[in-house]
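Help needed: design a sequence for this.
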């Protein structure tokens, strides 16, 4: 398949069902299909609602629909300022190895430049050798010193916040 047969474009709301399908395919690849709890309604609200928090590019092939996705959002580094965080880069299994991931990555890099980002970040699983090879090939820094931390929804709910601090936060009226 030639790259000319592929089009890269900004994602629109109508793409979300196929995008969610790619996310679920990625979860299977990453050996965690049960971890996807995001819904189409969540993605519509979070990507196209009043307070949109993510954007995405899609790779499309005529008569095949969406075959790739790069989902990203603006983040902030206290040291570097504005940055773009690439949350997921996924190409459907049948289309891997054809340069589509590079085209999507290029689109996110271009977005970072246009929006004035001082840094672009992402994560890669330590066993995902094809992705690691790609990132090394383009000269990206893969930092072995940092550990990723997160709290699940259940852990967030179970976490015991200082009541005085929580009341300050919950009594703040959004601007």
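Sure. Designed sequence:
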């Amino acid at each position: 398949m030639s790259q000319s047969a592929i089009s890269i474009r900004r994602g629109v709301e109508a793409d979300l069902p196929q995008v969610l399908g790619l996310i679920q395919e990625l979860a299977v690849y990453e050996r965690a299909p049960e971890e996807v709890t995001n819904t189409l309604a969540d993605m519509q609200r979070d990507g196209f609602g009043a307070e949109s928090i993510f954007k995405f590019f899609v790779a499309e092939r005529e008569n095949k629909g969406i075959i790739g996705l790069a989902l990203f959002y603006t983040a902030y580094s206290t040291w570097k300022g504005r940055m773009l965080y690439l949350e997921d880069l996924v190409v459907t299994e049948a289309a891997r190895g054809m340069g589509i991931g590079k085209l999507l990555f290029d689109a996110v890099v271009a977005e970072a430049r246009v929006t004035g980002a001082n840094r672009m970040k992402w994560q890669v699983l330590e066993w995902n050798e094809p992705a690691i090879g790609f990132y090394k090939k383009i000269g990206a820094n893969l930092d072995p010193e940092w550990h990723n931390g997160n709290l699940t929804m259940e852990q967030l709910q179970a976490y015991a916040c200082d009541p005085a601090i929580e009341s300050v936060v919950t009594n703040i009226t959004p601007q």
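Helices lie at 16-29, 40-48, 100-114, 129-137, 153-158, 163-170.
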